[in-house]
Prior knowledge:
Layout (H helix, E strand, L loop, with lengths): L1 H26 L4 E16 L4 E15 L17 H27 L4 E10 L16 E5 L2 E2 L3 H9 L4 E8 L2 E9 L3 E5 L2 E5 L2 E7 L2 H28 L10 H14 L3 H23 L7 H18 L5 H32 L1
Antiparallel strand pairs: 1-2, 3-10, 4-5, 4-6, 6-7, 8-9
Amino acid sequence: MYIILGIIAFGILIAVHELGHFLAAKACKVKVNEFSIGMGPAIFKKQGKETLYSLRILPIGGYCAMEGEDDDSADPRSFGKQRRWKKLIILAAGAFMNFLLGFIIVIIIFSQAEVYGSSTVSGLMDGFPDNGEAGLMEGDKIYSINGMRIYYSNDFSTAMARSGENVDMVVIRDGEKVTLEDYNLTQREYTENGETVVKYGIYFETIPATFLEKLKYSVYTSFNFVRLIWYSLSDLFTGAVGIKDLSGPVEVVSVMNDMGAQAATVGDAILNISYLCAFIAINLAVMNMLPIPALDGGRIFFLIVTWVIEKVIRRKVNPKYEGYIHTAGFVLLMGLMVFVFASDVVKIING
């Protein structure tokens, strides 16, 4: 059941992206030849006044086929004939819709929350080392760890997962910033409620989840997703992780299935999968806006570059050159997708 739910979720995420392009194109009076949900053979078609609406058998994609998007067209309502600001709005609309969907899911998830963990230390467990003025104290507000800003208690966990045992921590104490350099902070065994637990030994104050606080936390969570994605990209470019560590739709659906199967209740399963879907939606928004050929971000990048070049050379740049670059980028992206797909399958087979 959760595999089917994961596949449907992916289909919705991509359909929403294409819906963004579609609505923006219609608002800008651009002719849309076909709007499709899904890929492959059509199982339903309906011809509108000028747009063919179709539902296709594979729920793994979709498209908004605009007149003159990838070829030259004399139609004044074609995409290629539009002013740059209209093109930019249409191209960015898909990513905007993905981000908006992720944000709405986050709001729904946290609408039932009662409290949030702040970044202010409310107490330290018995046996916590290096406390006092030279270390952490009750009432300290953790400001950053190794340069990563800390806003809520879950940021602390994220920062520590990316750090070693010794960190450079900045705390706000009595209204002033205090730097704890090379501060040893690691998980240790503590006794809690008569049981031995392995924790960092820090308790954080909680914040009542009022309406405004829920909205604030939802906004924070959405933009924190963006921050986590940038960290992941940074790790990829610095070599901290390799291409083999990338995950595609196959592994993500597998993870969704595992999350659903391991949840205590169906409600918990749906909640966990929804949270992952929100992250993926915002991930798609960010990745799609990267200045990579064939992606919307790449098209926007070339819109800006060609505008600058045309201002300098005083003549129009032949669009075929941009087409060549996007075609090459598309081929490379397809190659990467095939590699990631194969890697996902191998990971699942190997367990």
